Task: inverse folding
């Protein structure tokens, strides 16, 4: 966690619907990742010097929307205000103007990031159980890269060890362990199960697992259900306020002691996007949020197989499905395949949005046990221009290490 | 919360506040005297669905029934939702003809009079002649507006089948017996119990002097529950029940105006693209079955217009807010939907952009009403 203090800036010349968001971000400074803090510092510096005239169109729109001191006191940012914006007749105009402003601000702020750019890697692993071959696994992304043939071990269990551990000591594990030499939160491993645990022992490496968070997840589900059934809250806005208090307990996860990470897990699990309920959704949304917020240099993502919905009991979304019905749990292989095809694309697209990843990121889409992978990488990535032959997993691993300077 | 309040808020607010049983027969007879009276059924792909998963070339495989029906009707390629992109406000905009900006979660009724109120007041239609049957359980207030000139006395019956289902399933979870939810008969029994208890609480408020009618409605809904439970598939959500209740209401009461809201595709929020696609295909199938019911029901055949449209789209894949999972970005993928009109007597397609708020004045015209005051415009293409 960064020990730096939030930037002190006077945003009095900036329209309140814009500056409130910024104030809110600064208020949560201690729960931000270094990349977020650095961005806010750059943004604050920029806005401190920005002429008021830049915001004149937004000010006009705020007037039309009926924004005033009473509805929107400066320095406050509430869900009611978000609701006010969403339901306002001028919302579309407001949103377009915000997009226009960031279209002007972001290129300036990105220059600094691009100047400090360094090679990055995003590795996305699919489970061995998917019922399709490499010709159908990455159809949404195929046009972006090329398939690389692999020689793979007979035993699927050895696949990960060769790709991540390497057949020479210390291999990929060394890279992860050296995370401490990199900036904090710069190496992430996110997965449904526990197969990456062995490769994520390095201090400073972030390891998030849907299964390993089960104690916290089940408590959150029970709490959400209780809040809803007690009818103590009127609606989602009030619910959101209540959920802020559901912090992770030390006995629930090894990341509980890290204020930034435990808050990341809380907000990810309570994002309302199925992250509490579906293992792969948790992995996808965590990966998206990690890219958006922490901007890791190495992101390792391992998806799994989700379960089929059970008749009737699946209506009780916050119940433990293993206890709610006697119907046995079944894996949904085909459904998982369809889900993941979209998620591969979303992870790739999210990274591509951020300047840290543009033109310097190797994306490796692999499936455990499969004899091909999909590679999307810059021309100077070692494997990119290599001859078409079968590559060993340790050669792939070595290419990534070389690329990352490991 | 008391049971009665619970049902009023969340589930089963059936029919008008005053309906003597004798009047029901009067309305039925009046309807039978005018068999050619046109009927309108609005079907929403609630929860939101993108063009890319429906009427785009690659999406057609998800909606085989609508794709096959398209040449039989009139297809508007661009039907825009320019309002608030929440479920309640989107559907309320469709049924009022004004962009609604009320509470997103149904804690307020629509601010402008609904089509149901216009219709019942203008046509002096009976209370069983306008229905809302919605999977979205927050649509309890969809049947009538907060406008004092209209309001509940002229509103639609609102049935929220999923809430009924949820109540029964919760009851089993709380008080398990036998195989619990693995036993469909057990689920049916609990559903019937909830309906029975609920009707005792809700019924007398609704049908102040309608004991016979009360039993009639209850029997109709109970029949629908049986069809649902004994259906070929093991239901995981609410849209099938919405369909069966709709069909029973059509067979028993033949309302002239209905809104049917399918909503299971909102499972997209869970982040499962396959479940989202399955729900779209299920909605396509149920909508096709609804059209078949119209064709085989003497009171609907050849005099019913079915207006089918998504209440909203969902965010595009390029969007910053996680693509199909959400629907708040305001990008074209979220706002641009389509409209298929079956049974108007007009066939064809148009690129002319129309809006969700054009549905209410158009439905009013199809029902033979004077134009109500709305912010929308008539879809002239549907005037045969």
Result:
């Amino acid at each position: 966690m960064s020990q730096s203090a939030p930037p002190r800036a006077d945003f009095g010349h900036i329209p309140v619907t814009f500056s409130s968001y910024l104030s809110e971000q600064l208020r949560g400074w201690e729960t931000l990742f270094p990349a977020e803090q650095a961005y806010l510092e750059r943004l604050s510096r920029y806005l401190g010097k920005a002429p008021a005239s830049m915001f004149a169109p937004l000010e006009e729109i705020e007037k039309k929307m009926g924004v005033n001191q009473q509805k929107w006191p400066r320095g406050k940012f509430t869900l009611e205000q978000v609701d006010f914006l969403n339901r306002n007749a001028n919302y579309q105009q407001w949103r377009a103007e915000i997009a226009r402003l960031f279209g002007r601000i972001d290129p300036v702020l990105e220059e600094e990031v691009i100047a400090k750019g360094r090679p990055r890697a995003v590795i996305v692993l699919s489970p061995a159980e998917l019922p399709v071959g490499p010709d159908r696994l990455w159809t949404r992304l195929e046009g972006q890269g090329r398939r690389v043939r692999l020689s793979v071990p007979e035993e699927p269990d050895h696949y990960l060890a060769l790709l991540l551990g390497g057949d020479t000591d210390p291999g990929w594990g060394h890279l992860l362990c050296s995370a401490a030499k990199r900036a904090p939160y710069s190496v992430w491993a996110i997965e449904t199960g526990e197969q990456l645990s062995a490769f994520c022992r390095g201090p400073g490496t972030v390891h998030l697992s849907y299964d390993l968070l089960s104690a916290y997840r089940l408590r959150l589900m029970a709490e959400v259900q209780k809040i809803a059934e007690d009818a103590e809250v009127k609606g989602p806005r009030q619910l959101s306020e209540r959920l802020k208090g559901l912090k992770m307990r030390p006995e629930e996860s090894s990341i509980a002691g890290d204020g930034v990470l435990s808050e990341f897990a809380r907000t990810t699990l309570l994002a309302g996007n199925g992250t509490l309920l579906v293992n792969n959704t948790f992995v996808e949304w965590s990966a998206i949020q990690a890219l958006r917020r922490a901007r890791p240099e190495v992101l390792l993502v391992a998806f799994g197989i989700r379960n089929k919905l059970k008749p009737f009991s699946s209506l009780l979304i916050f119940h433990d499905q293993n206890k709610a019905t006697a119907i046995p749990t079944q894996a949904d292989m085909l459904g998982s395949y369809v889900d993941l095809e979209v998620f591969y694309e979303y992870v790739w697209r999210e990274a591509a949005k951020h300047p840290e990843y543009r033109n310097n990121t190797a994306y490796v889409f692999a499936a455990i046990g499969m004899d091909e992978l999909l590679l999307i990488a810059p021309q100077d990535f070692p494997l990119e221009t290599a001859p078409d032959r079968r590559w060993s997993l340790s050669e792939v691993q070595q290419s990534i290490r070389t690329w990352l300077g490991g | 919360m008391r049971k009665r309040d619970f049902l009023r808020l969340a589930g089963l607010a059936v029919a008008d506040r005053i309906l003597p049983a004798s009047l029901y027969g009067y309305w039925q007879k009046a309807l039978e005297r005018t068999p050619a009276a046109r009927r309108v059924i609005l079907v929403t792909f609630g929860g939101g669905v993108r063009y890319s998963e429906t009427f785009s070339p690659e999406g057609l495989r998800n909606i085989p029934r609508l794709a096959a029906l398209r040449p039989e009707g009139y297809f508007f390629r661009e039907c825009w939702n320019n309002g608030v992109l929440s479920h309640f406000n989107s559907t309320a905009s469709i049924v009022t003809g004004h962009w609604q900006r009320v509470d997103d979660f149904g804690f307020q009724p629509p601010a402008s009079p609904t089509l149901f109120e216009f219709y019942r007041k203008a046509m002096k239609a009976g209370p069983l002649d306008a229905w809302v049957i919605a999977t979205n359980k927050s649509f309890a207030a969809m049947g009538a507006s907060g406008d004092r000139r209209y309001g509940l006395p002229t509103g639609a019956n609102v049935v929220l089948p999923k809430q009924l289902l949820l109540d029964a399933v919760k009851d089993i979870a709380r008080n398990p017996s036998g195989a619990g939810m693995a036993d469909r008969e057990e689920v049916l029994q609990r559903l019937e119990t909830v309906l029975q208890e609920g009707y005792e609480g809700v019924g007398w408020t609704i049908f102040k002097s309608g004991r016979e009618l009360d039993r009639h409605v209850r029997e109709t809904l109970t029949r629908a529950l049986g069809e649902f439970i004994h259906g070929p598939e093991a239901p995981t959500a609410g849209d099938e029940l919405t369909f069966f209740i709709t069909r029973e209401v059509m067979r028993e009461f033949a309302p002239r105006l209905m809104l049917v809201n399918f909503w299971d595709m909102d499972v997209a929020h869970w982040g499962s693209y396959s479940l989202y696609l399955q729900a779209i295909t299920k909605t396509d199938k149920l909508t096709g079955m609804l059209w078949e019911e119209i064709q085989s029901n003497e009171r609907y055949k050849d005099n019913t217009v079915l207006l089918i449209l998504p209440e909203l789209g969902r965010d595009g894949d390029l969007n910053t807010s996680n693509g199909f999972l959400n629907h708040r970005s305001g990008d074209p993928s979220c706002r641009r939907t389509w409209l298929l009109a079956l049974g108007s007597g007009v066939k064809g397609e148009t690129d002319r952009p129309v809006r969700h708020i054009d549905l209410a004045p158009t439905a009013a015209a199809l029902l033979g009403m004077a134009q109500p005051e709305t912010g929308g415009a008539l879809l002239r293409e549907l005037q045969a």
